[in-house]
Fold this protein.
Amino acid sequence: MASEATQADPVAGGAPRLADFSFPSPEIAACPYPFYQALRNEAPVYQYPGRNDFLISRREDILQVMRQPEIFSNRLYLVDPLSPGADRREVLEAPPPGGIISTSFTLSHSDLPEHSIKRQALRSLINPRHIHSCEAAMRRIANELIDGFAHRGEVELRSEFANPLAILTICEVAGFPAEDKDTFLSWRRGTINQGRRFLTPEQLAAQPREMEGRVQYVEAMILDRAAHPRDDFLSEAIQAQIARDGEINLPYLTGEMGLVLGAGSESTGQLIANMMRLLIEHPDQLAKVVADRSLVPGAVDEVLRYETPVQCTSRLVMEDTEVGGVAVPKGAFVLMMYGAANRDQTWSSPEEFNIERPAVRELSMAFGAGIHRCLGSPIALAEGRIALEVMLERLKNPRFAPGHEADRENIENFEKRAPKALHIQFDA
Ligand code: HEM
């Protein structure tokens, strides 16, 4: 288990050493914390041997990157992630796109000023009144999902609760067709993103090739909704784009709505499964939140810190610079290791899971930072809170079902944290 492995070594005088790790590896995907500890101790800004990639593992250094979006670009599509550094330099000479919405890439792959226009176009999704008005539906969906298995006294929580709740919530909030939830669920395969360039050709070939089908689906959904608008975010976003630009920009809308659908469901499903796993693993913390529901929001924040669903993201370096005193050249990629920063020296007893830890929400890197900080964090926090309240109410005395230990291991993906499956029992 992650916490055991991390806590054991330093006490024994055997702090983990960078030289003992190969990144990425199945061992790191299973439990990254000893590797993160070695990174922070030995090289908090670490150049991956023989490559133009730097792993950044401390909160302060990540914030330094986030404060300079003009140097650390999100236009990662400029370069093939697998291309050598020399090729990157060539494309980096290209001028930045001008105009309004000049590229079809999503806001998470855009820089200023284009990024702020795209982000503004999605603001109504996270209007506090809108989210509040969706909370009753989130609670109803959570209860209906539990109605489906409550009589059994056991469940595989990811597939029967966490993932469908996350999908159905984003459908409710954004206006995507809930009747297609099984299609959306079939897309959730834990695809590796920028981390692709660390994979071997064999691993790359094994990556799911489902993107084409997704794009076709989202395009058809947008065209249908453009022709038949309803009273929801999706229809509004389409109408606003047409009103602004004079005609429909299908590639842009497809990218953006695909992002909302994917980003809006995958990580939240991970959070919900992580909450139940960590509370069962820490019975003292479970007892506290069962006895006092005012601890629920703090528990959600601490789960996000302790098992950060999005472990890392990347930026492309646009000019020679430095991070944490280390020279980082133009054309390099930097990986912000959010999962490592969430256990760095910012925190007292960082390896301890403590739902009463102060100021977690303010300091946590779980949603990133700066101009690209998670747009949907208010949705994720409301959904996490409601999911935990309903689970505590309905799934009494939760415990791991015997015989499924291997399923609880992390999904085979170093960019994400969540159990592959979570078989639990409860008092029916
Ligand atoms: C527990 C759940 C979630 C986690 C842990 C999470 C995490 C993150 C992180 C770390 C980023 C920053 C990426 C970067 O550094 O470039 C991000 C961006 C983003 N997230 Fe989330 N997210 C969650 C839920 C959601 C939800 C519910 C939505 C719904 C709309 C959403 C939409 C987005 C979008 C659109 C961006 C891109 C923002 C930008 O580039 O300006 N996320 N998320």
User: Anything to note?
Assistant: Residues 1-12 have pLDDT under 50 and may be disordered. The two ends are 28 Å apart (CA to CA). Strands lie at 45-47, 53-56, 72-73, 154-156, 312-317, 321-323, 326-328, 333-337, 396-400, 423-427. Residues 2-95+107-427 form a domain with the Cytochrome p450 fold (CATH 1.10.630.10).
